Structure formats: structure tokens, C-alpha cells
């Protein structure tokens, strides 16, 4: 199961239900895929094919939706 938290600018932000415990978000689009840690701070964990410009855009979107991402993680993994 990989619930989508939100979609914006052609990117899908989601997480996998049965993965590591450290809070993170996956990002997918037609041009690439990445994983960002959400704690202790927003940080790129993995990147496949996104350019530096795209990674900066994605990080900015994560910052803008940070509270939503944290809340979605807590709701999904608390039950």
C-alpha cells in the first residue's frame, strides 16, 4: 500500500506502508523518483533522474506541505 498524500506540479508525494520507521516521503513523476527524510530535517535520501532544479522545486513543495506530510504520516502509522 502506498497512500498518496498530495499531488502538485506533476509530482506525486506518497509513502509505503511497510517500510522503515524514520519519517520520510517518496516523490514520483514521469521524469524521476526520489526519497526525502522529513526528520530530523528535510534532506534528500535517494534520487533517480531528477535534476538539481527539480530537486529544489520538490524540496520547496515538501517545505510548503510539511505539516500536512507529518500529519498524514502520523495518522497512517498510528493505526
Question: In brief, what are we looking at here?
Answer:
This protein is of the alpha+beta class.
Explain how this protein is built.
By secondary structure, this protein is of the alpha+beta class. The chain has one domain (4-78). Helix content is 33%, strand content 34%. It has helices spanning 52-64, 66-78; strands at residues 4-8, 11-14, 24-29, 32-37, 43-48. It has a 5-stranded antiparallel beta sheet with strand order 1-2-3-4-5, covered by helices on one side. A hairpin with a 2-residue loop joins strand 3 (24-29) and strand 4. The protein is globular, with a radius of gyration of 12 Å.
Features:
34% strand, alpha+beta, globular, 2 helices, 79 residues, 33% helix
Q: Based on CA inertia axes, which overall geometry fits?
A: globular
Structural class of the secondary structure composition?
alpha+beta
Gyration radius from CA atoms, angstroms: 12 Å
* Helix proportion range: 25-40%
Largest sheet: 5 strands, antiparallel
Strand content: 25-35%
Name the poorly predicted regions.
Answer: none
Task: Tell me the number of structural domains.
Answer: 1
Distance between the termini: 14 Å
Which strand order does the major sheet show?
Answer: 1-2-3-4-5
Number-wise, the strands total: 5
Instruction: Please give the count of helices.
Output: 2
Amino acid at each position: 500500500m502506498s497512500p498518496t498524500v498530495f499531488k502538485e506540479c506533476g509530482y506525486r508525494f506518497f509513502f509505503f506502508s511497510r517500510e522503515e520507521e524514520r519519517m520520510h516521503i517518496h516523490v514520483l513523476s514521469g521524469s524521476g523518483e526520489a526519497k526525502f527524510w522529513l526528520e530530523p530535517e528535510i534532506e534528500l535520501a535517494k534520487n533517480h533522474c531528477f535534476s538539481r532544479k527539480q530537486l529544489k522545486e520538490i524540496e520547496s513543495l515538501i517545505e510548503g506541505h510539511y505539516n500536512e506530510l507529518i500529519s498524514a504520516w502520523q495518522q497512517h502509522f498510528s493505526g
